Amino acid sequence: MKYSPGDGVLLIRGLSSFILAAPAQEAFTLFLEDCDGEIVQSVEPDDLVVVSAPEGGPLEPAFLLFRLVRDHHAPLVVLPRGHPGSRRLRHVVSVAPQVLFSCGIQRGTHPEQHLICSSEELAGITLRGTDGAVELEHVPPGVRVEILGEQGGTGHVSQ
Amino acid sequence: MCSVGGPMDVEYKERVKGKDYKCKDCGEKFKGVGRKPVCPSCQSDNVAEG
C-alpha cells in the first residue's frame, strides 16, 4: 500500500496503539544524543519521520512531538539500556528512509533509526519513504490507515 | 507484549556508530550518518571522511 499524505500525516491505528508517519519534506540535520556522544544525521526529503505510541492515548501530544522533530528539528535523546526513564516514555521517534516496528525492544534505547518500538498489534509493519509517499508493508488485518490534515488530530486511541 | 520496563530486549549487533568526518571549510570534526553528511557548525557539505 502506498499513501501520499501531502502536507498531512499518516495515522496507522490499531485497537490500542498508533503510529504517525510522513516524509521529512526537506533536507535537514538531526542530532542523535547518546551516552557516547553526538551523531549528526543528514535527513533527506523522502526520509520518514515516525512517532510510535505503543500504549495509544491522545493524538495531540504525538503530533506535537512529530512536528518538533520534522518542522523544528529537535534533537533525539537515546537512553542507555536499563535506564528508568525508558518506562516513562509514551512516545518514541525514528527518522530514516525505512522503519521497522518491533515490540521486542526497550523504548527509547535504540539509536538505530531503522527500528522503533511498537505495540504487539503493530509489530512487523515496515514503512518506506519514496517520492513523497509512504509505502506500507506487512500491515496486520484490522489496522486502519488514515491521513490527518496538517493540523493533526485531537482524537484518542485506546481500548 | 512490549518489553518496556522489563528485562527482555533484542540485541542488534549493528549499532549506529557514525563515520568520522571533518569539515574542509571550518575544520569541525563530527560523527555522521546519512547519505549526504553536512557540517553541523557551518552547514557546508564540503566534508571528508577521517
Helix content of chain B: under 10%
Helix count from the secondary structure assignment of chain A: 1
Helix content of chain A: under 10%
Please, what is the average pLDDT of chain A? 88
Number of strand elements of chain B? 3
Structural class of chain B: mainly beta
| Overall pLDDT confidence of chain B | 78
Described by the principal axes of the CA atoms, the overall outline of chain B is globular
Number of strands of chain A: 15
Low-confidence stretches of chain A: none
Quickly give the structural class of chain A: mainly beta
| SSE string of chain A, helices as H and strands as E | EEEEEEEHEEEEEEEE
Poorly predicted ranges of chain B: 1-14
Q: Name the assembly state.
A: heterodimer
Can you tell me the number of structural domains of chain A? 1
Measured by residues with Cβ under 8 Å of the partner chain's Cβ, the largest interface is: A-B, 33 and 25 residues
| Overall radius of gyration of chain A | 14 Å
